[in-house]
Every structure is written in structure tokens, then in C-alpha cells.
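Fold sample X.
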Amino acid sequence: MTSPVLNRPLKLAVLISGGGTTLTNFLEQKAAGQLDIEVPLVIASRPGCGGIAKAEAAGLNCEVIARRDFENIEAFSHAIFERCRACEVDLVTLAGFLSLIHIPEDYLYRVMNIHPALIPSFCGHGYYGHKVHEAVVSRGVKVSGCTVHFADNEYDHGPIIAQSAVPVKGTDSPDDVAARVFEAECDLYPEVLRLYAAGKIKVVERRTVIAD
């Protein structure tokens, strides 16, 4: 699989569960002329999350598709990807989206996630949001960071596309680490989106290769 070369804005669905900070970053990068995207669809996994207000304030189409409203993951995932197809999105971006989804064949390697640690450390079921940074500080590691990867049907498991490392100091609190990691995320995720839109990401046997 090689990402397509797009001579137009990359059409994103942005899936959120919280405050929408990654969505805000995308929109700020777009406004600054650094990211050529359109966002025809935002999906929130729960009503009342802060990202909904941010999406609506930006004039975006935001829909709530809550996991609790569906009998199983398959039905939940089907509802999400039906909306993605209807909006003709090129790529689904998980932006602090906490619910597991099953990815259909037509969206294989068309769903990306960013995780606030260096996979395979501090990842998988139960490692999300601030819990990741608490675990990093508790373990006493010297380096953390963030990972952008293609999503598959397991938590934090698909092919890794890019990673960015940040130092962890002995005096850091989880909030300190979170702030440093988020700053790295704000650069890394848009950079990967630019690579995808330029047709520079290739997946070979679950490994990614970035073309020059």
C-alpha cells in the first residue's frame, strides 16, 4: 500500500472523545497555511465533550456517535464509517478518540492515530490520556514522546509511521511531561498528514517506508 498523491486538500474525518486539542491544532495549522486540509466531518464518541463546542465554533459538521448506543463494536464501527463514506473523507484521524473501532477493508491504512508515548512502551488497553504520563513518571524513564501510526483492530497496534521523542526530567510531574509531549504532537501529526497527502507513505509487511 502507498498513500495516494493528492493535488487537492486532504479531506479528514476527525474523531474525538475529549477537549478537541488535536482538532484545534489541525485548524490552526490550516489557518497558518501549513496544512492543506478540509474537515467535512467531526465525530465525538460522547455527548458533552469539550471538542464538540470547538468544532461547532469553527463551523464544522460535528456528530455524536456514542459507543454506549450500540450493541457491539461492529455496529458502532459500521455507523462511524458509513458517515465517513457519506462525507467522502480520504483519511480518518483519531484525535484523542478513546473507543476501539474495527476498520473495514476499504479504510485499511486510511485510519491514523496519535499516541502520547513511544510505542511499544506505555500503550495498549488502559493507557490513554493522562494515565500514560502518570505511568511514565512513575516508571522513571528518561525519554517519552509520541507516536503516529496506522490504526488496526487493536489498541495502539498498527504500523508505526513516525515518532518524536522528548526528555523526561527527574523533577517532572505528569503535567510537565504531558505539556512537552503535546508540543511534539502538534508538530508530528500535521507532518505525517502532509506526507500522506504527498503520497510518501508506503506500508510493506506492517512496516512503513517514507519516500524522500
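Fold sample Y, listed below.
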Amino acid sequence: MSVSAQSKFKGAFSLAGLFDIRPLVDSFVNDAIHMSMESAEKVSPQLLESSVDATACPLHLIVPEFDTPEFFRQTKEYQEKMLKMGNPCYFKLANNRDHLDLIEKLIDDRDEVLTYLLEHMKG
């Protein structure tokens, strides 16, 4: 990505993200996609080498209040990794939300998460 294109990004957002996909290999989630441990490692941001970029746009990690402890654990660990590398990274708790309605409620103009997203896209 060119420097001029990269400078246009004001924020990146993860909504209820997982950053280490390996635990899914032995779960029902993998029944349809047949992911190997090797392929899970290749798509796990927590395991990828990242470079520090002082011009990187802030990363906002948004987790629903009623998500599982695994989502919280992985999100906090990924935030720690980003901060140690010097990349701006923020944790946002989506109050009174579960994994699915985090997205479903974004159609409401008064939605707290939508407001947060729009505010942090302005830069």
C-alpha cells in the first residue's frame, strides 16, 4: 500500500474478533471448512510477525459485554502485543451486547457502537 493511500485510513476496527484461530481446529466450527493447524496458524494475527509503523492508523478492538471469556482473553492479549510494538490500539466494551447483536444493532443511528465507529473514522 502506498504511503498516500495508507494515510487515508483513520482507524481499523475489529468487532468481536479472534486473534488466535488454532482453538477452532478441534471445534465444530471447523467441521465445514476443514482447517489444518498449519492453516489456522497462518491466519492468526496473534501469531504473525508485525512491524512497528509509527504512521499506522489506530486499531480499535470492540468486544461485546456478553461474549465468552475466550474473546476477552484473546482481545486483551492482542492489544498488549500491538501496544508493545508501539502501534496505537484501543479496547472498547460494547455494553449490553452479545456476539450477534453487536452487528445487528448497527442499523440504529443512535447505536453506541455505531457512534464510536463513526467518531473514530474521522481521525
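Sample Y note: The longest strand covers residues 59-64.
Also: The chain has five helices and three strands.
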